[in-house]
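User: I'm writing a short methods note and want a consistent example. For Chemotaxis protein CheW, I'll paste the sequence; you return only the structure tokens, no commentary, since I'll be parsing the reply automatically.
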Amino acid sequence: MSNAPVSGFGTENLEIIAFRLHDQEFCVKTTTIREIRGWAPSTPIPHSPAEVLGVMNLRGTVIPIIDLAHKLGMKSTVANERSAIVVAEVHNMVIGLVVDRVSDILTVQGSQVQPVPEITTSFDKSFAEGIIANETGMICFLNLARMFKEREVEDLAA
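Assistant:
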């Protein structure tokens, strides 16, 4: 297995926000994050995709709230007082991502981001930018732009 860094990051410093979904750690670039909010219930929307929990009013703007665990193929998150909504901008649209809790804001070198290993030929690793191994475990580095295709984000807004 190669320990070569993922192309595109090189040795640049990356600011990331780490969060937990169930017992797994994930992260995204802080440049995609607008804010982190405490858990608040959303208003359900009839016939919305399964990962859409509903919508929320964010200072006068209605945004979709996404169950990120469900979007990643995991068991849906059961929100509680420790849950958070990570408000992100993807393809010029603001969305809220429900996570179990925000862990940390970190600076890592691009060379620390390892490629996602090939598991099977049918395995779709497009959601993952790479894997960051640190002293406490591994963090899956998500790519929100690939996770939410531009057309899909437009449909969430409709």
